[in-house]
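Researcher: We're teaching a course module on how sequence relates to structure. For the next exercise, students receive a sequence and then see the predicted structure as tokens, so they can try to spot secondary structure elements on their own. Here is the exercise chain.
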Amino acid sequence: MPLTYKDAGVDIAAGDAFVRAIAPLAASTRRPEVIGSLGGFSGLFRLDPGRWQEPLLVAGTDGVGTKLKVAFLADAHDTVGIDLVAMCVNDLVVCGAEPLFFLDYFATGRLDPKRAQAVVAGIAEGCRQAGCALLGGETAEMPGFYQGDEYDLAGFAVGVVDRPRLLGADRVQAGDLLVGMASSGLHSNGFSLVRSALLTGEPEADPALLADLLSPTRIYVRSCLALAERLELHALAHITGGGLPGNLPRALPAGLAIELTDGSWQIPPIFERVRSDGQVTRQEMFATFNMGIGMVAIVPPAHASAAAELLADQGETCWQIGRVVERAAGAEAFQLVGPSG
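Model: And here is the predicted structure for the students to work with:
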């Protein structure tokens, strides 16, 4: 009997049916600039030049990492798509960019339509939260490459910012204050350490713990864009891999440093559980995780209180967590200091 592609493990008909099934999810994220619908060879998006003086396109890509292993363990796939979008669009908004559209790459050993649709539903939800269109994507069935029903995800986002409104280190000055926005938990970084600390007995994993670990990454796009639109905002820092010490200095010009005030914000209990159960040092915790702060706004002192109020109105929990200072010769760009400074 002749061998077919389906015999080899790839079902094209099932893939086509999957694309038809997720088309309404993509349509729910549609923006007026989108041309056509899901299913073409590429997606089309009309950029309206009248909206910007000097538009700059901003692009970013990311994944969810080994947090997917927790999703497999819990057999819960409806939030990792939100994580995927969040990790990309939170990076875009750091320079003041509005996310325009998003594309995803879903690769698996065997396409499970129900599981895959749950993932894409999460991606669509993330796009709605960020205000961007799910413009297209790729579903790759790769038997022999991935084990069983396991899958991997990658995301790609494109945004736009007007050059005069571009945020970045060149705006930051000594004396600026840091307003930290609460994370929703671990977000999507450090899960190799999390799994080693908390999930060594995977078959007996506590469902409540798994649900806590799978809390989706918070999307800060609308809050940050509102801040950039209404107040003087110098820079933003998305707190991902490397934690606060690794990400805050990326928002600084040469010659300046961050003084972060220890104890000035609430650290969610999940971080203490990782530290305690895994016997992880506090220094390692800060160097790996967001420790309860997912995004930081750097603003001039005169705007700090207004920034906190505006962010609260946008639904963010936030704290004034530190300041920008002159960097002494030989000093580190990040310093964790006591409440008195």
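Model: If you want an answer key for the exercise: The chain has two domains: 12-165, 169-337. The chain has a mean pLDDT of 93.
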